[in-house]
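User: Run a structure prediction on this.
Assistant: Running it now.
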Amino acid sequence: MITADCHMHSAFSADSEAPMETMILSAIDKGLDTICFTEHMDYDYPPQPGEPDSLEFTVDMDAYVKKLFELKEKYCRHIEVLFGVEMGMMPYLGDRCRDFVKKYPFDFVIASTHLVNGRDPYYPKSYFDGISEEDGYRRYFETIIENMKAFTDFHTYGHIDYVVRYGPNQNKNYSYKKYRDILEPTLKYIIQSGKALEINTGGYKYGLGQPHPHLDVLQAFKSMGGELITIGADAHAPQHVAFDFARLESVLIDLGFKYYAVYKQGQPQMRKLG
């Protein structure tokens, strides 16, 4: 059983309304022994064209730290609550993100790409306006290596094919083979840099029938020698904590993965699958 969910959000993230305590109680109810809150920090997140209600993805760190450590203590006999952040990357933000993560005692830092040229696939009408689905996917994938080279102070790379959630046809025309020219060097860079690859069950929640990354991408990662993975549901509501973890565990074992990592104080602790 996968007993740690290391990617979740609460009302401290702009796209969640869930009180932190309800997320913790859901995790306890589902038999988890460890969770990590990874609230959004996306510097310079711009208003999205044609989206008057677009959100601002920054976190009130003073309030976040206070509440997390208060609840960490309150529930310490029931579950371990870890302190994390999901950094939204853009190439010019490397120094600013580095300064930020060094300012706090994070257990775990996820680096993610949400914006490409100031547009987020989360708002698909804006992101795909005037471009094809394939162009939108390629632009997203091409940005990932740029982001990783600009900011190296992270532990895992999050939802590497996030863009596919929001494409006009989602994953119908998506495969590792189609985008191998970009995805292969990206996966090799992650492995060679000693970083983990996040396996994110948000793909199941969005009806893709696959996690992020897709299974053929995961298979390619494994065939290149990739072993270091982290697992998170990317839950923004209590009902999605540990979403489809049993299904994911079976898939990972079938692909030949034996362990997953839980980061504490920046160090990976390996847990056995199965």
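Strands lie at 4-8, 34-41, 80-88, 108-112, 156-157, 196-200, 229-232, 259-264, 267-272.
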